[in-house]
Amino acid sequence: MPGQCAAQASGEGLAAMVKPSPISPTVDFDRNGVQHGFLRLPYSRDDSAWGSVMIPVCVVRNGQGPAALLTGGNHGDEYEGPLALYDLARTLDPKDVSGTVIIVPAMNYPAFRAGTRTSPIDKGNMNRAFPGRPDGTVTEKITDYFQRELLPRADIVFDFHSGGRTLDFVPFCAAHILPDKGQEGKAFAAVEAFSAPFSVKMLEIDAVGMYDTAAEEMGKVFVTTELGGGGTSRAETVRIARRGIMNVLRHEGIVKGSVDKHSTRWLDMPSGDCFAFAEEDGMIETMVDLGEAVEAGAVIARIHSTGRTGQAPQEIRAKMSGLLAARHFPGLVKAGDCVSVVAVE
Ligand SMILES: [Zn+2]
């Protein structure tokens, strides 16, 4: 039923102007059992005249009940989510489910295939492209489908992230501080159930166009993660992802069984002072490792200019006391790059 939700939301007059999504699912979201299929998006190009982008999707449904929408690969170079979700799609038994689980392990599939944060087709950053357009770029067509077709079906939305090639994080699950305290409370309860080593009350640098914002504005419970980074995954972070997503589904009553609870340390990002940015290009020397305590004013990193010898490094200092929650990953840094994030316990 492409376009139906938008038509309902925007009234008769406007509905006539809203184009249907070009994406057709090969699964039926209302059918019981397990279905493995695709969100098929026509994409005509040099090597395939009438070709399509085939985004894998799995639906596991067993009768009436709450619906979870689980996504990974929103950014194409983050792997804990796809590893956990391809695994879940292969193993989840509908007998253990009450309600619906929709799994899209690699949301920005062109970016995932290329191993890049953004789409190689249009350079689209999926997490800045909401609400999207049915007649926009490939990335915008995918976000439009999530906005109008998938998000309205969900009660809880879980979106996996890690740092990608350029950032590395202490493993955490997170939700946002929200004006609706009921919605916020449900999200933080799900974060606690996920049982990552760290749990974060998150502040965004740039919330416009995010999947998070789109889901929260629809009143959905939205939970996310940052589980490492560097453009790869680690055994520990993949274990956290697999255990955590089952915990959240059990906590929501969608999957049978009790939550496998592990202790978590709550972190806050109280203001923009959490973030530090490079002001020049160079070679970065981290002075503090992830998870270590830092005092306000302490040097977290030094940026060495490499064009000539004899230059003093630029010092990056912590603007607040806390622990190092994220850092720039590659050895070289450019002006404007996010160098570090300090969070408060
Ligand atoms: Zn990401």
UniProtKB/TrEMBL annotation:
Query: What species does this protein belong to?
Result: Manganibacter manganicus
Q: Which UniProt keywords apply?
A: Hydrolase, Metal-binding, Zinc
Q: Which segments constitute the Succinylglutamate desuccinylase/Aspartoacylase catalytic domain?
A: 64-251
Residues of the signal peptide: none
Q: Which cofactor does it need?
A: Zn(2+)
Q: Does the keyword Ribonucleoprotein apply?
A: no
Q: Which domain of life is it from?
A: Bacteria
InterPro entries per UniProt:
AstE_AspA_cat (IPR055438), DoeB (IPR014336), N-alpha-Ac-DABA-like (IPR043795), N-alpha-Ac-DABA_deacetylase (IPR053138)
Please report the name of this protein according to its UniProt entry.
N-alpha-acetyl diaminobutyric acid deacetylase DoeB
Task: Quote one Gene Ontology molecular function term.
Answer: hydrolase activity, acting on ester bonds
